[in-house]
Amino acid sequence: MELSRYKLEETKKEKAVSLILKNKYIGEYSLNSYGKPISKDCFFNISHSKGCVVFIKDDVPIGVDIEKIRPVEDDLIEYISSKEEKEYIKDEKSFYEVWTNKESLTKCIGTGIKEKIKDIPSIPINNVKSYKNNKYRSKTIKYLDSVICVTRENESPFEINIKEERL
Hints:
Number of helices: 4
Number of domains: 1
Shape: globular
Largest sheet: 4 strands, antiparallel
Oligomer: single chain
Helix content: 25-40%
Order of helices and strands: HEEEEEHHHEEE
Strand order of the largest sheet: 5-8-7-6
Mean pLDDT: 90
Number of strands: 8
CATH class: Alpha Beta
CATH superfamily: 4'-phosphopantetheinyl transferase domain
Strand content: 25-35%
Low-confidence stretches: none
């Protein structure tokens, strides 16, 4: 990974930590055609935002997204949200619940956001949703000053257990 291509020091550090975590917990991996890291031994995903990196590993397809809660412009809410999602969004935290649900779902599938973002379901938060003929369960938590969402290709309930690591 060529860190010099990133302009912000914070981004360089996040990318370096991502690489360290992948090497420590995954070992050998490759990238799919959309750039998602994949392993032949397990499913995993990684996300970072404003100095925090989240890594997750599972036995089913999984996606994770973290976003630091910060002010949001109304035009961004309009751009990403369906009518139902607009009704759900009451503040910055609920906006990032919607956003991280969309992002973690597309990361679970392995494509990232490649289509009209309004069409990617986020509701219900913390429950099962259908998308592209599959069922996915998401779990969203507030952690420190961020929102984290994990989405699994599985309808079974699950818990998010945070293990902080200082590198």
